[in-house]
């Protein structure tokens, strides 16, 4: 055990409820017996207050060194203010693949039991990156940039994942009936890649129809491949099938770095009250453990999480319980310890 590897991880607690859910998740991860060297950095408004910059250079250097980060929610101003921290980090480290599994937890009743979807979202191109300008007062424009390189590599990422994990079907979601050049390029690149994976069924749906199809029958889908903005919207829609954004994980993956994050907001209205649900960040941390080749620990944490949800004795208020953030973490740790004996 003394020779056990120590994982250096950049830690971005975020703001609002971020530090609380991050602290809970860290306690759970350390209860696995794995060793971590956490390199903690502020981002967003907190960083600006301290360092007069929204993302300190030290944070960038840490991610370049560790190549993996765990990130809590960071508030993004609406209609003004500083640029999205999430978008900035994704662009900086070319984290081109956004990975969001959507799967029900036991004990959480929804109108859609048994959902098992994988959302693959291109993460560095399209309207979502925010290439905007004001032409003249009262007239603004945004540039949607799509490249063959970007479209091809996200398609290959999706099909590689399907092959490795036995997924049976991928739908490319688009608006090529209107966006004939940009979304048309995405379709051409994806069709070409699909030909290399004959064991994976391939289909295409227009994005607005997809939203209708999802709420009517999400079970017809297995994996969804989307450009950046569509992926942002549809992945949030799909989270509702399993209980909402407070339960689902998110990963931003590139060739040289990966950032794992909760995809919900910073909820400043409940910050500091010890009532926030750390499940989304914990599920993201489970993805991080797999990325670090710690599959056994990931399986243990996932089993402990499911045990707590199955028993329904120590859940937070958002999912029908009355437990605090730290009491929930204690319950997961206790489940880990029981499984380890």
Automatic annotation (TrEMBL):
PROSITE patterns: IDH_IMDH. GO terms for biological process: isocitrate metabolic process; tricarboxylic acid cycle. The keyword Oxidoreductase applies. The keyword Transmembrane does not apply. It comes from Acidobacterium capsulatum (strain ATCC 51196 / DSM 11244 / BCRC 80197 / JCM 7670 / NBRC 15755 / NCIMB 13165 / 161). GO terms for molecular function: isocitrate dehydrogenase (NAD+) activity; magnesium ion binding; NAD binding. Pfam families: Iso_dh. This is Putative isocitrate dehydrogenase, NAD-dependent. Belongs to the isocitrate and isopropylmalate dehydrogenases family. Residues 8-332 form the Isopropylmalate dehydrogenase-like domain. Keywords: Oxidoreductase. InterPro entries: IsoCit/isopropylmalate_DH_CS, IsoPropMal-DH-like_dom.
């Amino acid at each position: 055990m003394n020779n056990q590897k120590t994982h250096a991880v950049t830690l971005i607690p975020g703001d609002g409820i971020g530090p609380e859910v991050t602290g809970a998740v860290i306690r759970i991860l350390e209860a696995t017996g794995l060793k971590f060297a956490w390199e903690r950095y502020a981002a967003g408004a907190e960083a600006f207050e301290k360092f007069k910059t929204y993302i300190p250079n030290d944070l960038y250097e840490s991610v370049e060194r560790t190549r993996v980060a765990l990130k809590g929610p960071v508030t993004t101003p609406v209609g003004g203010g500083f640029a999205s921290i999430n978008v900035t980090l994704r662009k900086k480290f070319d984290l081109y693949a956004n990975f969001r599994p959507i799967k029900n937890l036991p004990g959480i009743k929804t109108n859609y039991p048994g959902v098992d979807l994988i959302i693959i979202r291109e993460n560095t191109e399209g309207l979502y990156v925010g290439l905007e300008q004001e032409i003249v007062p009262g007239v603004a424009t945004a540039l949607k940039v799509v490249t063959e390189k970007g479209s091809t590599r996200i398609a290959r990422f999706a099909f590689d994942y399907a092959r490795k994990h036995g997924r049976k079907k991928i739908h490319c979601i688009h608006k090529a009936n209107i966006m004939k050049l940009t979304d048309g390029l995405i379709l051409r690149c994806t069709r070409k890649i699909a030909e290399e994976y004959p064991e994976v069924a391939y289909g295409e749906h227009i994005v607005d129809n997809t939203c209708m199809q999802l709420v009517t029958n999400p079970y017809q889908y297995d994996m969804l491949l989307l450009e950046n903005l569509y992926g942002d919207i549809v992945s949030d829609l799909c989270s509702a099938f399993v209980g909402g954004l407070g339960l689902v994980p998110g990963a931003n993956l590139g060739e040289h770095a990966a950032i794992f994050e909760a995809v919900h907001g910073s909820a400043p209205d409940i910050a500091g009250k010890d009532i926030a649900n750390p499940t989304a960040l914990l599920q993201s941390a489970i993805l991080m453990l797999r990325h670090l080749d710690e599959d056994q620990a990931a399986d243990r944490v996932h089993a402990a999480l499911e045990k707590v949800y199955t028993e329904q004795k120590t859940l937070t208020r958002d999912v029908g319980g009355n437990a605090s953030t730290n009491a929930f973490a204690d319950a997961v740790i206790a489940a880990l310890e029981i499984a380890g004996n």
